[in-house]
Every structure is written in structure tokens, then in C-alpha cells.
Amino acid sequence: MEKVSREVLIGIITGTLFILLFSIVTMLILINFFRRKKKMFYEKQVREAQFQQELLQTQLEMQDHTFKIVSQEIHDNVGQILSLAKVNLNILAMEGFKDPKITNVAELVGKAIRELRDLSAGYYADRLAEEGLIIAIKHELQQLEKTGLLSTSFHSETDRLPLDKSKTIFLYRMVQEICNNILKHANATQVDVSIFKQEHDIRIQIKDNGKGFDELKENFKPGIGLSSIRQRAAMIGADAQIQSEAGIGTTINLTFKSEPQS
Fold first, then answer.
1. What stretches of the chain show up as alpha helix (H) in DSSP?
2. Rounded distance, CA 110 to CA 86, Å?
3. Domain holding 220: CATH number?
4. Which residues, other chains included, contact 9 with Cβ-Cβ below 8 Å and sequence gap of 6+?
5. 186 and 211 in contact (C-beta within 8 Å)?
6. What is the pLDDT of residues 128-176, one digit of tens each?
7. How many Cα atoms occupy the beta-carbon half-sphere of 170 within 13 Å?
8. Residue 190 lies in a domain
9. How far is residue 57's CA from residue 167's CA, in Å, rounded to a whole number?
10. How far apart are CA 247 and CA 226, in angstroms?
11. CA max distance for the chain
């Protein structure tokens, strides 16, 4: 009887150990399965992010190439026509035509040539990368001032931002888009741009005193511009925070990691 009880006890212990071992093996298999699944999901996200970065780089290169072609066409064709017009006006002045209207037209044509040259030069990414984002933003604000519709101010805690060429161009295009949206839709009279530099982060703040909007309203629908700003910021690892109040204005903060200087 004692022998039977011992055999039963051994059987119970053996069965328990087998069940325990089976449970452990099953648990390890499940853990490994979920780890692999999580790893595959992460790798998929990384591949998608890399694809988006490559797509962004291709878009920037294509855009830059197009801008260079357009810029060269402007310089070669329209600029040449304006230059010839100015030469003819100067000849008229030398031949004794002292009409103030001719002088005024000559000055306007000269101004148009200078503006065209500045506009054409603004499309060159190499120059943008060389001069840096801060100078490019200052130039953009000067162009806004020339419309006579907006006053602008600029403040920066640093003289130069450590950014690669692609990110410089991308951020500049974003600032351009925001400024154009302000000019077209905000009914603003003042635009203030500030750049704040912390230990690892850089923040570009663009503030206007326009009509603003209220995102909390039930019938509020974000326009293409707002969605585009957030999406484009995410593509370069930046964060776009948009704060607005109806009748007060809008503040957009673009925050991104600074890159180590070589």
C-alpha cells in the first residue's frame, strides 16, 4: 500500500512538473512570438520612416532643380528684356528727353531688375545653405514688409543654426508657407519671428496679430495649411504646436533637435 502511495505521489509530482515545464515552454514561446512581432512592427516603422526621409530628400532635390531652372529662365529671359528696356530709357535720357516720367519709369525698371535678381537668387538652395536659415528668414520678412501690408520683427538667441542642407531648406519652406498663409488669410498687420536655442533644442516661433481661430469649436475644420505644417514638421522629426485665439492671433512653434557642429 505504501508502495502504491509512493508511486501515486511520484506520478503527481511528475505530472505537476510536466505541466509546469509545459507552461514555462508555452510562455517562453508566446513571449518570443510577441517580441518578434513587436520587433517586426518596429522595423516596419523604421523602414517607413526611412522611406519618408528618402521621399522627402527626393522631393527637395526635384524642387531645388525646378527652382534653379525657373530662376535661370527668369534671369535669361525676363531679366534680359528689362535690361534692354532700361538701356533704351537711358538712351532717351541722354538724347535730351528729360521728361520726369521717363526718369521715373527708368527708376522703376531698375528696381524691377534688382527685385528680380533677389527673387531669382532666393531660389538657389546652395546659397540658402551657405547663408543659413536665419538670413533666409530675415530676407523673407523683408519681402513681407515690401508688400506694405505687414510690419515684421525678428529676434534670435543665436547667430547661426547647426543644420544640414536638407533640413535648412525644409524649414525655410515651412516658414515661407506660414508667412504666405498669414499674408493671405490672417488679416494681420504684424508678424513677429523669434528663434530660441536651448541645450539640445531649437524653437522657431512665428506670431501674428490676425483674426485667429478657435479649434475647440464643434464646427471648426482645420485647413490644409495647418495639417500640412504638422505633417511636414513630423517628416523631419520636428514638433509643430499651433495656438490660436479668435480675434487675437496665432502663434506657431516649430521645435526640433539641434545638430552637433562638426
1. 2-73, 79-94, 100-121, 125-131, 133-146, 165-181, 224-235
2. 7
3. 3.30.565.10
4. none
5. yes
6. 666 788 988 998 898 888 878 889 999 998 888 878 877 888 888 889 8
7. 26
8. yes
9. 10
10. 18
11. 138
